[in-house]
Amino acid sequence: MTTARPLTCVACGHTEHRRIAEARSGRAMMRCTRCKLIFVVPQWTDPLAENIFHTYDGWPAGLSGGAADRRGIMQGIARSLLARKPDGGRLIDVGCANGMFFDVLRSESASTARRQAPIAGERGRSPQPLWRFYGVEPDPRWQGVFQPEITIRAQPLRSCHFPGNFFDVVTLLDALYYLPEPDKELAEIARILKVDGLFVFDIPGQWYLRMRGIIGRFFRLQRTRPFTAYPFYFSPFSLKHLIQNAGLEVIVTEVGRGALQSERLFRTLLSGYIAAVKAVCRLGPGWPPYIAPMPVYYVQRRDRNRL
Across the strands, what pairs with 198? Predict the structure, then answer.
């Protein structure tokens, strides 16, 4: 008689969990009782991750959905990135979709160069940061919009076999919860990131999603059922486990707002909430992971101090 393999949390390795909801796909959504990671069952794992976008069902718009208007938050990330990496370098955007972040970073780099131009009367311009863009996007729906001047791989990150210590910047924007085996994906990101490199990602906060569901039901808005759409919903504790186990550490977390909402009332409420969140976060840097709608994490390798 074969003993069933225990269901293990990919973040902390715990085996105790409880059911909290049913996903849109009909699968069960479970919460780890230790780190509070919420995950779909059967678990969203695939060692090769070659066919997930062709075989997964349950979301009407497909796994990666549509290209929401995230330029606002991307502009903020691009500006923070330019402040930390003013010389540019090799950048890979994991889950780049239609390449929106490449366009935003180009535009912000040009704007930064103009602001830092030499004083009037002197010829010449301040050089722009020199970026070499790479992308990873396994969803075939986006292959028709890939940009020819950018190196984009139409396959999962771990199948690309990039050299170690290769990228100055790795971005994973609004996409971590899509990735099978996020523990292995973060380990791969740590491997390909330079010792002095920067890893940037953002994800929706669990507490905010709960609040959005309550407000949405009260005002009869859309998206009122939290924790039913994505394979993973990460808590601050589950992220801490994943990041530390990958040999990484968070250096700062900023307040992000996510994509623009279609309902005018919700946009107004969200703007007020973000203003309040930013005021609270000025009192202490540890608040964004818990109360921000879309916390933005800036991460580095732990062994950078050995340089």
Answer: 169
